Amino acid sequence: MRRSVDEWLERDAQLLWHPYSSLSEPSPVRLVRGASGVRLQLTDGVEVIDAMSSWWSVIHGYRNPVLDAALKSQVDDFSHVMFGGLTHEPAIRLAERLVEITPAPLEHVFFCDSGSVSVEVAIKLALQYQVARGYVGRSRMLTVRGGYHGDTFAPMSVCDPVNGMHSLFTGALQEQVFGPQPPAGFDRPADDPELQAWAAAMAAVASERADEVAAIVVEPILQGAGGMYPYSPACLRVLRSLADQHGFLLILDEIATGFGRTGVMFASEHAGVDPDILCIGKALTGGYLSLAAMLCTAEVAQTVSNGPGGALMHGPTFMANPLACSVALASIELLLAQDWAARVAAISAGLTAGLAPAAELPSVKDVRVLGAVGVVQLAGPVDMVRMTDAVLRRGVWVRPFRDLVYTMPPYVCTDEEIATIGSAITDAVREVG
Predict the structure, then answer these.
(1) How many CA atoms lie within 13 Å of 219's alpha carbon, on the beta-carbon side?
(2) Burial letters for 326-348: b for 16+ Cβ neighbours within 10 Å, e otherwise?
């Protein structure tokens, strides 16, 4: 059945509920006809640079021949098989590679359907761990304000309870323990007075609620959807110390920051900190399919396995999907085969140069860059529709939110494309204000 663009968009509005959208007053959507490299082909014949990497996942670009081949090869064998009682080579090979490239203490891998589910599993694992150790009262998570960990129930409970996106569910969510947001600034030294005051506040909360807390859950170094907010590696070292002191587990959510996004393979490397549990997703498959993983130490795994139940109590139907595992392995190998760190450094330099002029605009509160992440924070809420249109007219796709216009571009962007992204965002902010 042939339809015009308007007819397709009309049916979309009638049938589909887009993320964080209203059916009565929906935000505009664009119909994509194709995608190749770092560009989206829209129905009006316009090509635009995807400066979002499709929500931070498509690090190698669209229609990458290596990733395409991995998927097609696996389809010829089988596309899916249940993981209960069965296994397959793609899952085993991917687990081997993940253990090799993640922090050394992590030895065991649990595959999940999405990043949010990996946080669910991590929280369940931490609770089972404390029960197995005899600490049945340790049923809460300790976290910091400003965080975001996903949209399912357990992750929602450790998102910022006031300024996050889930305040409507207050009362239905598990009540967790929140400390203050770390002071802003990646380069803030450990002896900075604000950082020391924050550390003292966290220590007080941890000590006061130690008998209730099973684990600390944070996004290391960069808080993502909570505000694209970078903080000092020294803060992560404080949290590791508090976890060790009180017998908490340290869960690091690297769903957004993993696979080189902040300039190191995993953001915790900035601090020299190893987690007890690690959550990864998004870029894991290069954006091809939904797949995430939870990794943990041998000590955590053995404690839970020898505890009540004798097993980690979780098991998704599509766990370790062979197609997703195959393309994830190919994506990791493709990343490691190149000087990805140099490429991310070049993107960082390009975004720094391109976004710097925005700092002089009266509507801008802050401009910040960390690795392949560039952020323009406005002095007030962003007009998402107008700002999206303004950037799109300049050949770039972004998805602003709250008071932020930001980019997490694919690593395969050229220097010229990064320059285009920077100038498009800066000029759009100048226009829309």
Answers:
(1) 29
(2) bbbbbbbebbeeeebeebbebbb
What sign results for the dihedral spanned by CA atoms 101, 106, 107, 110? Answer: negative
CB-count exposure of residue 155 (10 Å: 0-12, 13-18, 19+): buried
Q: Find the Cα–Cα–Cα–Cα dihedral 337, 273, 114, 101, rounded to 10°.
A: 20
Q: Which residues on adjacent β-strands are paired with residue 142?
A: 177, 216
Catalytic residue among 282, 288, 406, 411: 282
Sign, CA dihedral 359-365-370-375, equals negative
Q: Which two tokens stand for residue 193?
A: 């007075």
Please give the Cα distance from 335 to 260 (Å, whole number). 9
Active-site residue, from 50, 113, 160, 253: 253
What's the pLDDT score for residue 184? 96
Cβ neighbours of residue 166 under 8 Å, at least 6 residues apart? 151, 156, 159, 173
CB 400 within 8 A of CB 367: no
Torsion of CA 42, 404, 230, 295, to 10 degrees: -50
Cβ neighbours around 114 below 10 Å, total: 18
Establish whether 231 is a catalytic residue: no
Sign of the CA dihedral running 332, 333, 334, 337: positive
pLDDT band per the 50, 70, 90 thresholds, residue 359? very high
What tens digit of pLDDT does each residue of 295-336 get?
999 999 999 999 998 899 999 999 999 999 999 999 999 999
Q: Which member of 62, 129, 148, 231 is catalytic? A: 148
Q: Is 148 a catalytic residue?
A: yes
